[in-house]
């Protein structure tokens, strides 16, 4: 049997081993873009196991809601101000039993900041440790959140030294701390908190001046914090001992690395006794060389019962999941792999990250194409639900896909995914909810005691119930058999099941009376679907009965609103009612659901008069009316189409906004009178002559102009001819001429469309007949 949960907060981790070497092989422009993103995974979500690879690396910056459906739902979110560049964005790193999430968001130039997202409202609050640095690879890195909303983590100061912090969930106050004996001013050395339990105890790693890792636990008593440090016997240097998770009982699990570079697990009791080594069957025994792999066993998360989830790698560097019953008299390993997990890539295989109090495990796996997918493993059945992918998750890039990092007591989870632009986004994973319990016999009024059974459609569900009017929780009475109801009583119940969130509460009111029940109330008009608001009357056949009703979905009682007159129903609504009368027990509940499908707001148009007769060159006017319908109150603009040529329209005013009453605009149609036509005097047969004559005359005139001693008669002749032709071109008479003037608005009758429109909606129009005369 598992010990009861006070409010266990699971902790997570994973593996990024030889990140510095891999990153060093990337182009310089890429290397500068990713350090903090890699660090987030390496330290907090994907790689507590090995912050860097070798001694020399430590001298440089490390570069490593469900709605009742049958499957979990994933909802994405972004911290305000999160960067939108490649390998920037938002990471959910820890989720508590209330659904509150702590995490990190990255801004340019890859500076880390903390945030807390409320599980009840979704509101995101951002924060920074007071002394956190603000340069490349620096900032605030939350790692874990407890049931009170207290957040722990680390920050890099301006000198790249590591320090711990605790942020109060109640006040937001920040307390910075360093493990006793840990360096405080040496770059890439110092204190790295990893996990906080619901008593406020914190465990993690501190790195000494020689780059050797040690475990620590911080406890607070009467406002005073104390530190205990520890090392596993046989831990090698520099990787040493890494404490990764602490449960409600104060038990700690983590890993140590032996002198040959192989990883092993350990468990430290609350009293300080260390059990080691813990090695998964099939774990490799020869240290990995290069790549992103490690060799051995890596416990990552411990639950309230002392059971552990983690990863081990085989001799080929492929990751596998394990579940270890550390607290059992005879501890056992259960190993598992997600179907579809690959055997090559950045994180080959199955990567469990977190275990909750029920033993359910969440994590992610990498498929054969190198894409990550989240998974959920049920403790009761061992069934694995996968793949779980966020909408919009990428299938290519450096960290493609969806990575589940932490799950809480009810199976809610958080993590991160990358979009097609390489930007990270946080998410909330909500398991499907269990079915709402049902009751037999049906709630109602009875003249004798009843034996009530409660059932649930979710396989393996446990039902918890109350009979005192309070909302049931998992601390309420556990249903184990029929309930005897011999007096008026309300039973409420919820269902819980492994892999499901708690169901909605079901409620049943049983009225037990030896008196006959009053008549069941009736409604007029009858329940149904209507296109307009309804006035509903409730009546009852029992003489002297008082009717009580509700409209908010709750079951009516004699404490509900007493019916005194018709009820106006202007939107979709359900009315429930009972009748009570002297010498009668309360009636059965009557229910009437009214669906009001009122037409959408709209308007109509009309024009008056519908016909205009206009003399060309003059104008005519008509009145254009807009009449609102069904509460229409948007701005309407006007336009004309189909007018005769040389005619135009205008409106005064140019738009109207009706609000309950028709509004008008004056439409003016303006026309154009015919104008005199200019005529061309040259017959078409003679026009080629002019085409030749003009250049010739111009040459003669130009020649005489340049040669001032030329014969004067040539100049005179050229001038006379040009003047004659010019005058002929501007003549306005006779011959075979072609008119080029404005004929005006043509005589005749045409139909014009006068329309009124709203942006984004179809226009309404009326036809105006226009007759043009001279």
Can you give a write-up of this model?
The protein has 774 residues and is mainly beta. It folds into five domains: 291 residues, no CATH class; 75 residues, Immunoglobulin-like (Sandwich); 75 residues; 103 residues, Immunoglobulin-like, CATH 2.60.40.10; 39 residues. 8% of the residues lie in helices and 40% in strands. It has five helices and 53 strands. It has a five-stranded mixed beta sheet with strand order 30-36-35-32-33, with no helix packed on it. A hairpin with a 6-residue loop joins strand 8 and strand 9. Helix 4 runs antiparallel to helix 5. The radius of gyration is 42 Å and the shape is flat. It starts with 18 loop residues before the first helix and ends with a strand. The relative contact order is 0.07. The N terminus is likely disordered.
